[in-house]
Amino acid sequence: MADSSIKVKGRIMLDPELRATASGKSVCRLNLSVYTGKNKDGGYNPSLFLDVICWEELGERVQKAHKKGDTVVAEGYLGYREWKKKDGTKQPGYEITAQTVGTEWTAKPAGDEDFPQEEGWDDIIL
Questions:
Q1: Complete DSSP assignment for 13-63
Q2: What does the pLDDT look like over 76-105, one tens digit per residue?
Q3: What is the mean pLDDT of the segment spanning 98-123?
Q4: Which residues, 6+ apart, have CB-to-CB distance to 23 below 8 Å?
Q5: Quick one: which of 20, 26, 36, 53 has the most CB atoms within 10 Å?
Q6: Is residue 13 within 8 Å of 32, Cβ to Cβ?
Q7: 64: enclosing H helix or E strand
Q8: 81: phi > 0 → left, psi -120 to 50 → alpha, else beta; which?
Q9: C-alpha distances out from residue 37 to 32, 40, 57, 126, Å
Q10: How far apart are CA 50 and CA 52, in angstroms?
C-alpha cells in the first residue's frame, strides 16, 4: 500500500458533505482542484481534480473545519475506481483515501492544533 501514498495541496470546490454508510460509518467527500503549474508557453496547465474520501472521525472533523474555497493539504492513498453516470456510461477516476487533511503542508489533522510539526516542510510551496 505504501507505493500509492500521495500528498496534494488543493482548493475545495464544494462544501464538504458528511454522510453515513448503510452500516453507520460516517464518510466525508472533498472535491479538490490541484494547481499543476505553468506550461512552457507561460500559460497554465489544466487543474487536476481529485476526490478525497475522509472516514469516520477525520471526516467529521474535516466537515466542521473546512468549506468551499479553502486550501487544504490531503495525505493518504491513491486509488482508482469506476462508477456509472446518470446516462449509464462508466466514469473512471482517481481518489485519495485520506489519512490526514489540514491547512498546512505538515497536514495537521483538521481541528487538531496539538498535532506535532514535521521539520523542513514549511518552506515548500506547490
A1: -S--EEEE-TTS-EEEEEEEEE---B-TTSSBPPPEEEEEEEEHHHHHHHH
A2: 999 988 888 899 999 888 899 999 998 876
A3: 57
A4: none
A5: 53
A6: yes
A7: helix 56-65
A8: beta
A9: 15, 10, 33, 8
A10: 6
Cell of 69: 474555497
Q: Count of residues for the chain?
A: 126
Domains for the chain: give ranges and CATH numbers: 2-102 (2.40.50.140)
For residue 17, the one-letter residue type is E
pLDDT bracket for residue 62 (50, 70, 90) = very high
pTM above 0.90, yes or no: no
pLDDT of residue 122: 41
Lookup: cell for 21? 454508510
Residue 108: name the closest of 96, 94, 122, 95 by CA. Answer: 122
Asked whether the beta carbons of 109 and 115 are under 8 A apart, the reply is yes
